[in-house]
Amino acid sequence: MAGLLWYGYRSESVDDYPGVLVPLEQAHLHSHSSRSRPPSDLDDAVLGYDDEGGHRHKDPADDEDTGMLLEMGTEPEYSIEGFRREVRRGNKGGEKWTDYEMKSKLINKAVQDIGMGRYNWQLFVLCGFGWFADNLWMQGISLTLPSLSAEFDISEKTVRYTTSFLFAGLCVGSFIWGIGSDVLGRRLAFNATLFITAIFGIASAFATSWAGVCFLYAALGFGVGGNLPVDGALFLEFLPDASSSLLTLLSVWWPIGQLCSSLLAWYFIGHLPAEQGWRHFVFSIGIITLIMFLVRFFIFHLYESPKFLLSSGRQAEAVAVVHGIAFRNGRKTWLTEEILDAVVDGLSSLSPATPRRRQHVTRQRLSTANIIKQRFASFSSNRLRPLFSSRKLGLTTVLIWFCWATIGMGYPLFNAFLPQYLSHGGNNGGQQPAPETSTNIDSPETISAETYRNYAITSIAGVPGSLLAAYAVDMNSPFFGRRGTLALSTLVSAIFLYLFIKFGTTSAALLTFSCIEAFAQNIMYGVLYAFTPEIFPAPVRGAGTGVASFLNRVTGLVAPILAATVPGDGRTTPVYLSAALILAAFVGMVLIPIETRGRQRL
Q1: Is residue 12 included in any domain, yes or no?
Q2: In angstroms, rounded to a whole number, what is the distance separating the alpha carbons of residues 467 and 387?
Q3: Which residue ranges run through the membrane (predicted)?
């Protein structure tokens, strides 16, 4: 299977997709504008507008300096000269656009003209599998803690260390797969993550000791950790700019994964003996993950990201992938290697394409050992240096990483142990949840089927949050858009974490506050996962999102250790810490200087 994961992909060629290429003179007939605007509006967008004296003008907003992010605005003239003006528009603090950046703009334009179609929607579902698997396992493992405590005679506090092993695997996986997707390609990571998760997840159902469970949870965490940074970056690079809100909508798979996990836990763990229920449950979600891998690998033909191919010097394959998208979507495209070279190099000759093709053939003849050695040589600090190439991008990188780190610790301090919190809230006759002096939190615990039912209700309440996030991120309002929606949902989350402890004196109150919390946190995470890859340019997008996810997982690794060792009440203090950390993330979000709504990604 490892050989299949590595070798099971063929190089793309434009010859594989006949009939999709149209001459540049006919490109305007197949453009995004021709499908979305009347012809008169299209003419004004391309040529400008006439004043009362009959003089032609362009919108001055077209020349706005946007740094690494280019505002989506008027359509360029479909000619070599028109494309040259378009790709060189704007500046980067006096620096010129690189060849890669200018060619990326042309690829963005070609993908935008092809538009959303069958391939993009299929990819939406398959990338959704990664988000689904992430929360399926993160929440699933938290749901097994009471059963592990009962079967292996481990105290309620000590069993929380189990989650630390999961997060150890998650932080290593997010870092390796995030940067690895920039070096080895998105496609390999896209499939390998689910395969690793499924194999070790199924194996964990047969563990005979708590130590064995912890080891296997860490191993499956290595696979799970790569899902979100890799799948988000991959989907983004195939997404037309006009459909950018779908990246946020992709997060709807996250609460669906939690919902599936909670329903299966309610069915198995809530109704079977402790030593059987969790094993049936883990085996079931392992089989679900394996099925998702099989669909990804054997049924769907995934193209490598054209941005990755372009940044790797494989321009011919990048163009072929765009042709492949057009073919799968039943559309036409005007993009060719000759156009890319003529626009960027100022040459209309076909000669620049020739050595590039020869280089690709030579690369195919290299030995496997040389390929692996060459690619892994790219793992260095040089991968991260471009994230600080300008003051604005550097500040944004630091702030977004800070947000990921604080949320990474704050989120599991509440959610990883929510079944425990819910169970104690309903067992005290409407009183404040009992402190650990009155109920022995250092003894093994058992949780009723009612608690698993309430957890399932909480999971259902989180699903609309992702739907609302997808709508709010494109609203033209200072309180919404990417930054506004992200900050507002994070603030609401912090407030209701405090209310959960302060006023959650009954089972019904705890359920209500946890439902609102799930709703707000799904908005927060949905926007955060969409906003982050939009900030970074494609050559280091995997590295940027990978480090963010790595910090998220590292701080998440600390969360269960704090929850198990923090002095005082083991049921209220962790939630107060969670509220403080989420509030700190809110402050960081307010300070982020970049808004990516309506902007083109490089």
Answers
A1: no
A2: 31
A3: 119-138, 158-177, 189-210, 216-239, 246-269, 281-303, 393-414, 485-501, 507-531, 575-594
